[in-house]
Design goal:
Distance between the termini: 50 Å
Helix content: 25-40%
Largest sheet: 8 strands, mixed
Bound molecules: S-adenosylmethionine
Number of helices: 11
Radius of gyration: 18 Å
Order of helices and strands: HHHEHEHEHHEHEHHEEHE
Amino acid sequence: MVPEMPGSDVDLPPEIDTSRPHPARIYDYGLGGKNHFAVDREVAEKAWAAMPTGRTAARENRAFLGRVVRYLAAEQGIRQFLDIGTGLPTTDNVHEVAQRVAPDARIVYVDNDPLVLAHARALLTSSPAGRTAYIPADLRDPAAILADPVTREVLDFSRPVALMLVAILHFIQDEDHPAEIIKTLVDALPPGSFVAASHLTGEHDRPAWATIERDYRAAGISAQWRDSDEFAQLAFAGLELVPPGAVLVSEWRPEADGPRPAPVEVSFYGGVARKN
Ligand SMILES: C[S@@+](CC[C@H](N)C(=O)[O-])C[C@H]1O[C@@H](n2cnc3c(N)ncnc32)[C@H](O)[C@@H]1O
């Protein structure tokens, strides 16, 4: 067993590599979760040495995800979600937020981390009226995600689907052709569907984020931060952005008044767009 993860409540499958860091576990550490290994903490701590507000960024992104799902379910009537880059289950997972609004909501979760798979099976359980399913797959192979029998069984592609790409696109470098990946996915969605996405940016402290990007790559994690215009062009090409557009995630339909963190503390852009 793995001594650095004492709080874990699942048996670790043998394919889990505890010698290399992985984004899901680094993010879990940032959110205050308990599913991470020494290698993940090392990369996270190194990033926070350059950017001490890293935890704020993770929390703001997670809050954005919740507001987006509520908006799509409550205000746009969306009942189907394809959530790629699910992350380790934490509070307010997509199906929990969606099914609070619409108990019949159906969610397919997708992630390429086997640890996410182990936890997802145990924790991402649906309300009786809805459905949740999980497939282990890589965003870099969108055709496989779309063709997976689980995707086809749970989601009806003749009715609107929300494609969720939240805090995942910055793990796809240009050499892996992210625009083509997104086009393949969006082409499969019927009109009335939505794309929701968020993305890390170096725009508000270039030297610090350049250091973090370099450290991630050195640790074997593919990473490319993008500016707001690059993000909007990549994630929402040909789609109609919902107001307020592609903005800092903290500025996207905030639900409470009061002060919000400075842009550099957020360092995540996000938005939602409709396919007409
Ligand atoms: C930062 S977490 C985001 C979790 C959740 N979407 C959120 O925003 O709270 C990114 C997730 O994307 C997954 N991921 C990274 N690259 C991926 C890829 N190429 N294919 C599938 N999943 C990937 C990681 O394993 C991780 O669980």
